[in-house]
Automatic annotation (TrEMBL):
InterPro entries: 4-OT-like_dom, Tautomerase/MIF_sf. It holds the Pfam family Tautomerase. It comes from Paenibacillus chartarius. This is 4-oxalocrotonate tautomerase family protein. Belongs to the 4-oxalocrotonate tautomerase family. It comes from the Bacteria.
Length: 73
């Protein structure tokens, strides 16, 4: 049984998550030719205060610019 773990940030709507789970399942079923009831999808949402990139926490007002640098901020 495939288990698909998706680590993502908070903020996706319930409708987006329903479509996401359905499409991940559909792709897995089509790719591996297995029954849909054998596919488990787990979405793990994380608050933006609890993740970062390039040494910058995502709540930083300049996160987008700072997190795209190859220098440690």
């Amino acid at each position: 049984m495939p288990i698909i773990n998706v680590d993502c940030w908070e903020g996706f709507s319930e409708e987006q998550k329903k479509v996401w789970v359905k499409e991940l399942t559909r792709t897995t079923v089509d790719l591996f030719n297995i029954p849909a009831d054998k596919v488990l999808v787990i979405l793990r949402e994380t608050s933006v205060a609890n993740w970062g990139q390039a040494g910058v926490v995502a709540t930083d007002p300049d996160f987008l610019a700072k997190s795209r640098s190859d220098e440690l901020n």
